[in-house]
Amino acid sequence: MDYHAFDKLSYGLYIVSSEAGGKAAGCIVNTLGQVTVSPVQVAVTINKENQTTRTILESGKFSATVLAESASMELIGRFGFQCSRDVDKFAGFAWARDINGVPYVTEQCAARFACTVVNEVDLGTHILFVARVDDWAVLDDVPQMTYDYYHAVKKGLTPPKASSYRPPEEKVTGWRCTVCGYIYEGEALPANYKCPICGQGAEVFEKITG
Asked: What are the TM regions of this chain, as residue ranges (predicted)?
């Protein structure tokens, strides 16, 4: 079977964020979608190991923003390839709170949704959250980023915990970032090298042996 068939499905890129016990968390997903109109409900699937998942399970609420096509790799790298347990993902970016008190990024985004979870489905590695949309707004009248644009134009990678992640098919000589999967091609990795996707240092890279 050809897994490239799944590449024909259309996705966007979204930041899903939540807060519980005074601790905020957020991650990038490509699985957000509207499922009903009356009431307005959305569904999103997030890996069980994500801190964002644990935070949503505790708070029962989340905010979702639609990334603009012009969103920077710095923003994507922060929310897509770093952990909320280790990093304040909102630091340095403009943000606000929705009507449920949940923080959300206000820059480089096209729209936002304030959501309350009404159902959860265990999918094994992931949890599917179904949520009522309590409030929504357009943040900027700009094109939203599609998953295809992210890969084709931004040359972005898929985080290993993402629902659509697949290991690279081609074999190359070089070093792989163990955080985001970025591959540095070459025999020697500079000691002060920083991953251009997730910003991690050379110490998290592993040699590709074949």
From this structure: none
Two tokens, residue 39: 């009431």
Instruction: State the Cα–Cα distance between residues 119 and 137, nearest whole angstrom.
Output: 23
Q: Locate 106 and state its tokens.
A: 């206000």
Distance CA 50, CA 62 (A): 14
Least confident of 53-67, 82-96, 174-188: 174-188
Whose CA is closest to 28, among 132, 142, 104? 104
**109 burial type by CB count under 10 A (0-12 exposed, 13-18 middle, 19+ buried):** buried
Which residue from 58, 63, 59, 25 is spatially nearest to 44, judged by alpha carbons?
A: 63
What is the pTM (predicted TM-score) of this model?
0.79
pLDDT > 90? residue 102: yes
Task: Give the mean pLDDT of the chain.
Answer: 87
The burial class, CB within 10 Å (0-12 / 13-18 / 19+), for 176 is middle
Nearest 5°: the CA angle 177, 162, 32 is 140
| Residues 175, 178, 179: CA angle, nearest 5 degrees | 130
Nearest to 15 by CA among 76, 59, 57, 61: 76
